[in-house]
């Protein structure tokens, strides 16, 4: 596998960084220690500019190449945040922070981008500049959106954006991407039902929110089967129903919560409208009040056709023809890199990390062996998109 030699040469350093980050996970926008660690490494590498405090703890590093580059520069993005999970790996480098863990491999993503930074700062075999984006709050909070809202893409002249996510269950070092939508939009709904509680022996004197919750839960399932065109992919998952406290009391309130995953804004509009109609209709039928709060979360992650083909070509140059899959393929998962792809063309790429526990599981751990491969991909993206002249 033609991993860049100098990067292979500091694979042990990358492993040490990754394990340090893994042992010290931070959540959401509170990635202070992670950002400090990143800034220390970037200073050692001699990058040209370090901008801190974007989206609270986000960091953008600028490395200058040689000569001019016309047009927007490449932005490479790594996420930094961990998850509220108690780690069960028993690894030597396991989390030292109770209830927090890098169960999505963002420690590995940060490490791969640091590896790329070290090589790019040493060699500078590209024209113009490159922006390395270290982003907090991917798992919740939409840190990518906050960085975009704070003007990051414009102020650094970023014209195209790329991100890399590890994929358990795919062969280690195998890349996969495709044109168009690759991950779903992620909406969240809350339904608050208010009826009239009372004695369970006298239901006729109540307006039962339990039956209304059941009615709404079942009716919502007809949206996918009855209201959405058969070829439009969509998931509606009801994930919480909370109500009641005793066998002899009909409660006053019930609460339902869940997520809607779609790829098309028109489908999203249709689902939201139907949910309002169904909730209102069911509430009327059961004689209760019900309020639907439907919030648009992360938008679908949509790769630019040309940039995703380019990213696949670059991946082939690193991993070889047989180790890159390029085809239309969608997952119902979601990713806030979508906000950057709404503003700039680019591509979201997966890198296999072999067998083992899946993402967001307490036994998950990033595979250090793929870090030099991912770092080489990041470097080649820059060198190929912004080649030296002559
Ligand atoms: Zn995750
Ligand atoms: Zn992730």
TrEMBL record:
Residues binding Mn(2+), per UniProt: 104, 106, 139, 165, 360
Which Gene3D superfamilies does the annotation name?
Answer: 3.30.70.360, Zn peptidases
* A Pfam family reported for this protein in Swiss-Prot or TrEMBL: Peptidase_M20
Q: Which cofactor does it need?
A: Mn(2+)
Keyword match Manganese: yes
Listed under GO biological process in this entry are: diaminopimelate biosynthetic process
Source domain of life: Bacteria
InterPro entries, alphabetized? Amidohydrolase (IPR017439), Bact_exopeptidase_dim_dom (IPR036264), Peptidase_M20 (IPR002933), Peptidase_M20_dimer (IPR011650)
Cofactor, free-text remark: The Mn(2+) ion enhances activity.
Signal peptide from the UniProt entry: none
What molecular functions are annotated in GO for this chain? Answer: metal ion binding; N-acetyldiaminopimelate deacetylase activity
Q: Which residues does the UniProt record annotate as the domain Peptidase M20 dimerisation?
A: 189-283
Alphabetical UniProt keywords: Hydrolase, Manganese, Metal-binding
Q: Does the keyword Hydrolase apply?
A: yes
NCBIfam families linked to this entry: amidohydrolases (TIGR01891)
Name of protein? Amidohydrolase
